[in-house]
Amino acid sequence: MSDLTHPHGPSRWERGLSRVIHATKILDLCGTFYRHPVRGTQREFVTLNARDWVNVVALTTEARIVLVRQFRFGIDDLSLEVPGGVIEAGEDPVAAGVRELAEETGYVGHSAQLLGSVYPNPAIQNNRCHIVLVESASCRQPLDWDADEELEVSTVMIEEALRLASTGGITHSLSLCALMLFEAKRLRK
User: Fold this and answer.
1) Whether the Cβ atoms of residue 14 and residue 35 lie closer than 8 Å to each other
2) Contact 137, 59 (CB under 8 A)
3) Confidence (pLDDT) at 1
4) Helix H segments across the chain?
5) CB-based contact 128:87 (threshold 8 Å)
6) In the predicted model, what is the mean pLDDT of residues 113-139?
7) Dist CA 90 CA 78 (whole Å)
């Protein structure tokens, strides 16, 4: 055992009062007081409270994966990624994935299923990203982008998508998670 490891594991901090520091359209910046149960340390921690998200691995009938390239304000650059978006209040993650795929890319498919869910950044965020697989996808719907969306839609062979993921062509962490879960499912077959 390392000198840095506590023999009983890390403590679960006790949650206290919480407040919204600033509310926005897509997330709330919150401050929550926590107290360490052993040391007695107490302080306010800042977190982002956001709705859950969905990312979609859409597999076409030709064994190609649907990708989108779009401008991302956080990095001030274009990003290649799988389609996805915000889950509406009360919406099922799989239904949200099917909806986002159709809206962003025009692709519709069959056998939509949840591959898994991840916490995008549990250090400061409380939401989850659900990864949905849609199979036998084909482009059959008109695009229905939000006011600020502008996407380039493409398809690549599965091996090319995985190569892009492993060589820095796809750097969006949640897209990498989606492709990893997809590949794990594919290898189990």
Assistant:
1) yes
2) yes
3) 44
4) 93-105, 158-167, 173-188
5) no
6) 97
7) 31
